[in-house]
Design brief:
The chain is α+β, with helices and mostly antiparallel strands. The chain has one domain: Hotdog Thioesterase (Thiol Ester Dehydrase, Chain A), CATH 3.10.129.10. The chain has 7 helices and 10 strands. The longest helix is centred in the first third of the chain and has 16 residues. The chain has a 10-stranded antiparallel beta sheet.
Length: 268
């Protein structure tokens, strides 16, 4: 079985603090223009498991994705989902744009969660009054980051679904929160705690526990899982727990980013 979905990609972060989404800066890194954020590319991919499994996937499904090549503003992004007959709980998801494979991942609907963070292990913390510069010291493994607040309300839901070109009626009909919106919160857990130069989201793994509903106030609690160098880039991995009302677990996220590309390090 094969699913297909085409999106006209939209760079939601052209004016953001992260200048990798700015055309001029991105070209200095060798790209054709500003990168569509990885969290939005993930959202395009999430269309496939929701189209296939519906609300059930938003309540207990998972997806992992890695981003290899950029997706650019205004270009077509073709999402393909393939379910093999001998493994109906697995959905292979990929994105192609400009004739190149840009992202790949695997979505699952299984009775056993891939992983789940415990609320007691993910404490709340205040955001810093003054953000330190991102570094191995300010993103030390084990560090609890400041908690980010968000809400899936009527205004944000309409804006978000428009941003990611989501067409499935489920989100409007049932007021259920889009998985990609939760992933944006994981990005915010990084960017609201440290000062970053141009940085690149390279992959995420999200395990849904209970879909958030319209009007619910949410928190993104985060801990630095790892911080390392690879091929001259500095990477950070975050563990993020999205918490809803009455301390309900909404989703567990493992989030990976290059917080200091080698081009920035070499220019210093």
């Amino acid at each position: 079985m094969q699913l297909s979905h085409t999106v006209e990609a939209y760079n939601t972060a052209q004016t953001s603090e992260n200048k990798i989404h700015d055309d001029d800066t991105a070209r200095k890194f060798g790209f054709e223009g500003g990168l569509v954020p990885g969290v939005e590319v993930f959202a395009y991919m999430a269309h496939a498991p929701v189209a296939h499994w519906g609300r059930e996937w938003l309540d207990k499904g998972e997806m992992t994705a890695r981003f290899g090549k950029p997706v650019y503003d205004g270009k077509k992004a073709i999402v393909t989902g393939i379910v093999e007959q001998d493994k109906p709980t697995d959905l292979t998801v990929s994105i192609e744009s400009l004739g190149q494979s840009c992202a790949s991942g695997l979505a699952r609907l299984d009775s056993t969660p891939a992983f789940a963070f415990e609320l007691k292990d993910m404490p709340k913390a205040a955001l810093p009054d003054v953000r330190p510069k991102a570094s191995p010291e300010s993103l030390k493994p084990g560090l609890t980051l400041g908690t980010v607040s968000l809400c899936w309300d009527a205004v944000s839901s309409i804006a978000y679904l428009t941003d990611v070109r989501e067409t499935l009626p489920l989100f409007e009909d049932e007021g259920v929160c889009h998985t990609g919106f939760l992933l944006r919160a994981a990005n915010s857990a990084l960017s609201q705690n440290v000062v970053l130069g141009p940085w690149i989201h390279v992959g995420s793994h999200i395990q849904n526990h209970s879909a958030a509903q319209l009007g619910e106030k949410l928190e993104a609690r985060a801990i630095v899982r790892d911080n390392y160098e690879n091929k001259g880039h500095l990477f950070v991995e975050l563990d993020v727990l999205i918490v809803g009302p009455d301390d309900r677990n909404i989703a567990s996220i493992r989030h990976t980013a290059i917080y200091e590309p080698r081009q920035v390090r070499n220019a210093a």
